């Protein structure tokens, strides 16, 4: 164990600096961890969104801290969730793809529960095995659905007929807080399905962006010149890989179930639609632009419900008198491409995919309106919560507590580089496995099944359009980054160089299948 006394001392220092007089243990904060699925930071007002407005999320930033450089260590749903729970990289916690999480492991929930917290989990879990370490849980099976969702508990299931998933999860979260025992602090993981594919907004917001022309990102027409085959071969492109289901197109009448399923998963290369009052058939560039609009209108409309949800939770905390000593976090399991590089989805080590939004409010201990550029990782969340709770951080957690950063300054030896690895090859989108290093100024990516590299200067080329690998004058920089990559690999104990074929394949499936449904 890392020293409990050191953690406690640090915590007490934190309280001292914040000029509060609460004894560390009696004053332990409640913790609400709100996590969405696939919500890119660049679709949040406080992060400078050019495409939407999120007043409640912005309030969280205004009253707390906004981190600009928080990264997923493996940018895909299930692995990121396992990394967050365990504070460990995928190769250590065993969840590299969609394989089942071994729930006998240490998790932040289990340690908090053992340390005297009342613990709850509501919403999307997506780890194959049942949640452990929670006094109460109610979760979506697998990905869950947007409308009429079914949720499972330890003892049964309930269908929320006529309800929208984001509202149901918010109700469950508020009920959990409202009905908690009053003699303990609480820890709540509140995990939304939204804004994950297939991006189905509720009735209130489904027309929110109708008739608006959402600006295309500057890299929407990226030609992929200078980049590796891995990018050229991917199948997560707005122009070519969105399906009839994604685009909410109306199927022909009279299709049998199998035909309908096939039709919905078809990727259309021509669409007849009404545009500016005329019926037109769109192809090529015009169709790509239209697909982007349809995608973003729905994606962003599901985000509006999430913003409402955060507003409801913050209002509840105010009314219940809990706001001051409740640590509220907002994040997403990874980022997402919003047409950036012509893409949707995540997976790649490019900025839009690995960057996680991370907003933290804790009025009793951190200053309002703070922005931190400290490089943080999803594996840092568990140690952060444990230290905030005055509990020892298990030695096998690889992340580092963000509390010193939240108090105002990163320690002098804070990380200046991070290791990333993605395994799911070819996966659902023909996205190739890769690993790499991101420093504060550069990124080096190795697509090992291709034996091809990409090198970017993030200062001169923040959109990662110019692959410098193998270019004249880059040899010294490349050597330095390769050395750093090797150092990080050793530091996180990833000894497995190329053996991706031996890793477990996602056979255990969602919880529904485990229960024989
Ligand atoms: Ca996700």
Descriptive account of the structure:
The protein is an alpha/beta fold and 517 residues long. It folds into two domains: 291 residues, Alkaline Phosphatase, subunit A; 82 residues, Arylsulfatase, C-terminal domain. It is 28% helix and 18% strand. The strands form four sheets. Strands 1, 2, 3, 4, 7, 10, 11, 12 and 13 form a nine-stranded mixed beta sheet that branches. Strands 14-15-16-17 form a four-stranded antiparallel beta sheet, with helices on one face. The radius of gyration is 23 Å and the shape is globular. Bound molecules: calcium ion (CA). Calcium ion (CA) binds next to loops.
Ions, cofactors, ligands: which are bound? calcium ion
Stated plainly, the CATH topology of the largest domain is called Alkaline Phosphatase, subunit A
Described by strand count, sense and barrel closure, the largest sheet is: 9 strands, mixed
Number of strand segments: 17
Looking at the overall shape, the CATH architecture of the largest domain is 3-Layer(aba) Sandwich
- The DSSP helix count reads 15
Instruction: Please report the first level of CATH classification, the CATH class of the largest domain.
Output: Alpha Beta
Contiguous runs where pLDDT drops below 50 for at least 5 residues: 1-24, 498-517
Q: What is the average per-residue confidence, as pLDDT, rounded to a whole number?
A: 91
The end-to-end span amounts to 41 Å
- What class do helices, strands and sheet pairing give? alpha/beta
Principal-axis shape: globular
Helix content: 25-40%
Task: Tell me the β content.
Answer: 15-25%
Number of domains: 2
Q: Gyration radius, to the nearest Å?
A: 23 Å
Question: What is the assigned CATH homologous superfamily of the largest domain?
Answer: Alkaline Phosphatase, subunit A
């Amino acid at each position: 164990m890392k020293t409990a006394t050191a953690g406690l001392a640090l915590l007490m220092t934190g309280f001292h600096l914040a000029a509060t007089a609460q004894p560390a243990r009696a004053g332990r904060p409640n913790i609400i961890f709100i996590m969405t699925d696939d919500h890119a930071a660049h679709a949040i007002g406080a992060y400078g969104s050019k495409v939407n407005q999120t007043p409640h999320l912005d309030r969280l930033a205004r009253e707390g801290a906004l981190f600009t450089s928080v990264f997923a260590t493996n940018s895909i749903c299930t692995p990121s969730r396992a990394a967050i729970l365990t504070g460990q990289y995928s190769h250590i916690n065993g969840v590299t793809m969609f394989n089942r999480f071994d729930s006998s492991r240490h998790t932040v929930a289990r340690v908090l529960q053992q340390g005297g917290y009342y613990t709850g989990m509501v919403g999307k879990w997506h780890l194959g095995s049942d949640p452990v370490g929670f006094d109460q849980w109610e979760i979506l099976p697998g990905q869950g659905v947007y409308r009429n969702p079914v949720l499972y508990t330890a003892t049964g299931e309930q269908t929320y007929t006529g309800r929208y998933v984001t509202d149901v999860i918010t109700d469950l979260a508020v009920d959990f807080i409202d009905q908690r025992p009053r003699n303990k602090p609480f820890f709540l993981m509140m995990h939304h399905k939204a804004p994950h594919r297939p991006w189905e907004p509720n009735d209130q917001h489904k027309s929110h962006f109708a008739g608006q022309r959402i600006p295309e990102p500057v890299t929407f027409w990226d030609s992929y010149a200078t980049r590796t085959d891995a990018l050229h071969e991917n199948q997560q492109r707005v122009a070519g890989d969105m399906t009839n289901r994604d685009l909410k197109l109306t199927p022909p009448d009279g299709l049998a179930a199998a035909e309908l399923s096939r039709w919905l998963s078809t990727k259309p290369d021509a669409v007849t639609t009404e545009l500016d009052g005329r019926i037109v058939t769109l192809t090529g560039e015009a169709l790509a632009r239209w697909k982007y609009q349809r995608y973003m209108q729905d994606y962003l409309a599901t985000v509006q419900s999430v913003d409402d949800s955060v507003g409801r939770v913050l209002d509840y905390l105010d009314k219940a008198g809990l706001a001051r000593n409740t640590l509220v976090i907002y994040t997403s399991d990874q980022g997402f491409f919003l047409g950036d590089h012509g893409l949707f989805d995540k997976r790649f080590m490019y900025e839009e995919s690995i960057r996680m939004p991370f907003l933290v409010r804790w009025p009793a201990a951190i200053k309002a309106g703070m922005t931190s550029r400290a490089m943080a990782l999803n594996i840092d969340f568990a140690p952060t919560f444990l230290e905030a709770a005055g509990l020892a951080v298990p030695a096998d957690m690889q992340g580092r507590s963000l509390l010193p950063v939240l108090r105002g300054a990163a320690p002098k030896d804070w990380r200046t580089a991070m290791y990333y690895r993605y395994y799911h090859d070819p996966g659902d989108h023909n996205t190739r496995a890769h690993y790499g290093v991101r420093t504060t100024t550069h990124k080096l990516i190795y697509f090992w099944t291709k034996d091809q590299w990409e090198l970017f200067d993030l200062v001169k080329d923040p959109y990662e359009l110019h692959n410098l690998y193998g270019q004249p004058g880059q040899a010294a920089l490349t050597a330095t980054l390769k050395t750093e990559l090797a150092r990080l690999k050793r530091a996180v104990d990833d000894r497995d160089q190329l053996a991706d074929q031996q890793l477990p394949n996602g056979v255990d499936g969602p919880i529904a299948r485990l229960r024989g449904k």
